[in-house]
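User: ok so my PI wants both of these folded by tonight, can you help

Assistant: No problem, let's get them done. Here's the first:
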Amino acid sequence: MLSFTIPPPVVLASDGVPLVIGADLFQVDQARKLLYIVVGTGSGWVLASYNLPAGDRIQSATVGNEVSPAVDFQLSSDGAYLYVTDTGLNVMRFRTDTLVKDLQFQIAADAPPLSSSNTVETRHKLRPLDDTPEGLLVVTPAGRMIVYDRDQQRPYTTTDFPAPGFTAMDPVLVHSTYVYALQRADVYHLVPCVVRYPLDAFGFGPPEEFCSIGTDWAQYPEMKTYAGILVLQNDAEAWAISQTPNSFGNMRLPYSCNPSQNLFAISNSLGTYASNILFTRMDTGDSVGVFPAQAALNGLAASTLLLDDGTLVFFEQVIPRGSRVAIVPQWQTLAQLYQ
């Protein structure tokens, strides 16, 4: 059931952030300066769009009782579609111009629950293909990667071409002709490797593994290094990774990459339920500043984006109030900048 409703209100933040919007998940269309959010309502969830940087609501829709809590939320490369998957393993596609659902299919339940006391499924992921608006990479609960065109699965999956040592995939850089992936974070299975899969109309091909990352790097144009930080980057996105897994098995770094502005935005924990955002130059590693100036955020910041008009957008987990998206027009005026 789809009905239109008013989403959670935009409110002023108490920690110097000009504007926040309650959200569980979010996406930003940087070209059109649009923010999209998903937030649970107890009987479904609200899908809504806002303009940036003003934060004015454009439209919203409530997706009702037939859905479970949202797990992942993605925007297609052309900005035309929003993809949502829920704990029921449904994949739903919504048009961004109307927020009307026009497609739905099911992900295979191909793995047992994490435990007898934790049966809610949240391990699956979605990643739209760059340059292919109706192409979608799906990661199943077991960690298999499958590509769909609309609701039609391409024949070859990563099951047909397994990467030795990898038990479950975590896609990083996704394009219409290749996919880079890491081992899904697992404290009991540390894999210090990056795998690159070729991709075509039939799906995946045989993978290449890079396990001596310090020496193997830069074999492809997407493999870049900025001030000693390894980055997987194409024209659409960039992700910083570590050369080795941390103690949790994670090789992703808490760096948001903004190549067009030559800035890393680094989430910096200041203790329990407090953080700030550090900015450094990507080319030199030199410190640029910290946001907010002489203060701390009342939550843990993540997924930082810098728009070309000077707007800062980031996700913040605020305990016990929940999660929200913060919007900061002209962020440098509220930051402490170093000379």
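One down. Here's the second:
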Amino acid sequence: MTTNVNNSPDRNSSENFINPHFDLIRLWIQENIGKFVVALLIIAYLSTGFFIGLALQKGLVVFGLVLSWMAGMAVAVVGQMIRGSLVYFSQANPYRLGGNAHIVGTAAALLLTVYACYEVMHLLSAIGVSKAFQTSIVGLIIGGFFVEVFFLNELNKINQASIVNDPELYRMAVENEEKLAEVKIRTMEAKVKLTKARRARLRLALERQQQPAEKPPVNGGQEESPTPPPVNDPPEKSRLFSPKVMDAIGAADNLTEMQMQMIRRLIDEGMKDNEVIRHIESMSEQNRERRAERADAKAHNVPLDFSQSDAEDKPHPLQELFRASQNGQH
């Protein structure tokens, strides 16, 4: 014995559950909701622009009636067009897998809505419009904001569904994100190499400055044979500046030649970096105080010895190298 599924009582009850008239309304809404939302947003933008232009026109009557209307409405309408463009600008490239395009659009809508409410209330108050009407316009702007947020959310969902359901578009989007990630990785690697190269060049310059200057040739162009050092006195070893000390020197107030020699001596004696940095900060504070005293003395025409002022106001060559290295890293 066979059973006819089409004539079963369960199927008839499910068909009767859906009201065909409401189903037609649902289909009509789904078909036209996008157009309705776009038209509603355009009307909200133009209405806001009209009332802003009306308030601006009142302040431009000194230029004549026609020119005041043209200028006020042009500024207001163009301002609202810019507002809408900033909100929906992320839809110019909707097929991005990463990034924060949807967040940027919502944030732009929120900030511009707050500004539009303040602008409307401020301008309408200036021309004597009642608080009740101002509240209505602000409500219109806030309602338009929520429409924008829901509309942007649906657009982002549609964009994501388009990527997932189209294999070719999905492949292109994934390849684009992979290439962008590769570019960022290569850029970071290049920055690291550049930083290392600058540090190496700076240390090489320091080593060259620490070497003694070559003596001029004597005895008819023949160089003197260097005197061998005593056997009991091994040559002193010179430590390199650590990155922490280099940063402290670069940040210090202009150090003098004597202060740089003192720092070099402290490092060669084996003093720890933290103690060397404390000495550098103390020297920097002393230099800053001396420069302030000289400036105060000049302002009050107090006779002081300014013979070393120009030299102290200029940083040491090594300090300039350290600062150049810091600027290159940042």
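Residues 203-209+239-301+309-330 form one domain. The longest helix spans residues 167-210. Good luck tonight!
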